Amino acid sequence: MSAPNQALPVDMFIDLDRSGPVPLYFQIASRIEAAIHDGTLPPGSRLENEVALGNRLGLSRPTIRRAIQELVDKGLLVRRRGIGTQVVHGKVSRSVELTSLYEDLERSGRTPETRVLSIETGEADERVVEELGVDAGSAVLHIRRLRSAGGVPIAILDNVLPPEFADLDPDALAKHGLYQLLRARGVTMRVAKQRIGARDATSQEAGLLDIRKGSAVLTMSRTAFDNSGRAVEWGQHCYRPDLYSFEMTLVER
Amino acid sequence: MSAPNQALPVDMFIDLDRSGPVPLYFQIASRIEAAIHDGTLPPGSRLENEVALGNRLGLSRPTIRRAIQELVDKGLLVRRRGIGTQVVHGKVSRSVELTSLYEDLERSGRTPETRVLSIETGEADERVVEELGVDAGSAVLHIRRLRSAGGVPIAILDNVLPPEFADLDPDALAKHGLYQLLRARGVTMRVAKQRIGARDATSQEAGLLDIRKGSAVLTMSRTAFDNSGRAVEWGQHCYRPDLYSFEMTLVER
DNA sequence: AAGTGGTCTAGACCACTCA
DNA sequence: GAGTGGTCTAGACCACTTG
């Protein structure tokens, strides 16, 4: 008796769609996540145990487990053997995802603007060969852009793309994010390896970002790979540190 | 016929320990990861399909899937439905994990040194209440340390801990990392929410880090939670950007 | 002793890709 | 049509925590 569980309202799980394309574990996870965000499941509260939850919803335990695991990976829930599953304290914050600055700005309600500073094809040098895994001397595409929001410059974006993207439309780059354009060509990003650091701004960067020369810039360099495992983009970006930072949630596996 | 698979050597999977505490999926994942690192499975090569691999090893498909999923989450493998599983191109790089600077330095072969600049208990102000979820006015522990390696200063570490850690030994802090001490007290970090940014160094910071006043520092603020979901640490760190940066691998889920 | 999550099995059906 | 990964089921046994 006296289960100290936070029994989730039954009607939270009605309308599960077993025929549509959305997996059951995803539907469950979404509903639990919503309950956490709207306070139905406050920080520290315990979830019903996996077996009981499965029975109540008419789902197998592995399916329930998978749903819960999604939220554990997001840093919303913590599991302890012999104890149960609880909601993590502390405000929820979005994890670092495989997104672009353009999408970050869009999501936060700002309107990103892009000025293409230069775009040209050139032979891949040693560093590009290393980062993109293309043949030496390949005709890779170099792009240099200035990204702003509300008229205020936020970042300088230097990117190099493999030869297959050499025909990328410069005009489209001014209107859309690079990742949007790549997706439109059927490329889906799957893995990215990146490094975040800082350094003093060069005078050129200071001019473009409207900051004092020698003051700090936040830097990020990233190589992104598509779902076939090939490198599709190498970028070196620098950000105005008063306008941008990287937020992330780490989970011990 | 003509499977273009990279058949893994059978003997790579002998000696699986079914009675020990190490899960089978973990043993499998470790061996595949080793094969990727030592070149047995080169970038772009295909893995044997899940069912066949399971049969060959006498394991069920879910177990094999779990092993592969571990490596997909690490960014080492990519899966495509109808196609197969392949090794990602590009050099492997460690993912950002829930570790401390102390452990980062140890792992890279350097010997971390710590100077405790100050350590004192004080009443929790509004910000601390917000970050740690403690009661207002609680006697929290403030620690300020300078972390070096090889005699060169690398970072200034400001941390605040909940009242239960107010008796932390200052001498121990000079010899061990904060996370090591917490683990020794039975605390295991599970989730951390952090933000990485940059700014100009204050003159005090510049003095401690042996850099020019006003030059860039890399900053990270983090709140860490234990396996019960309670906040156990809030830190605000600043790093010499020429000596430290954050490396990570992102995977689209 | 009772309750919890952690692991594992042996299947099943489906959606997608490619020849 | 053959092969691949994606999802789901209905159990089983175990390790750990708490009373």
What keyword list fits this structure?
homodimer, 253 residues, alpha+beta, Arc Repressor Mutant, subunit A, Chorismate lyase, 2 domains, six-stranded antiparallel beta sheet, two-stranded antiparallel sheet, 9 strands, DNA-binding
Number of helix segments of chain A? 8
Total number of strands of chain A = 9
Write the CATH fold name of the largest domain in chain A: Chorismate lyase
Structural class of chain A: alpha+beta
Provide a descriptive summary of the structure in words.
Two copies of one chain form a homodimer. The first copy, chain A, has eight helices and nine strands. Chain A is elongated and about 60 Å long. In chain A, 27% of the residues lie in helices and 31% in strands. In chain A, helix 1 (24-37) packs across helix 3 (61-73). In chain A, strand 7 (216-226) and strand 8 form a beta hairpin. Chain A has a six-stranded antiparallel β-sheet with strand order 3-4-5-8-7-6. Chain A has a two-stranded antiparallel sheet with strand order 1-2. By secondary structure, chain A is of the alpha+beta class. Chain A folds into two domains: 5-87, Arc Repressor Mutant, subunit A (Orthogonal Bundle), CATH 1.10.10.10; 92-247, Chorismate lyase-like (Chorismate lyase, 3-Layer(aba) Sandwich), CATH 3.40.1410. The two termini of chain A are 32 Å apart. Chain B binds a DNA duplex (19 and 19 nucleotides) through helix 3.
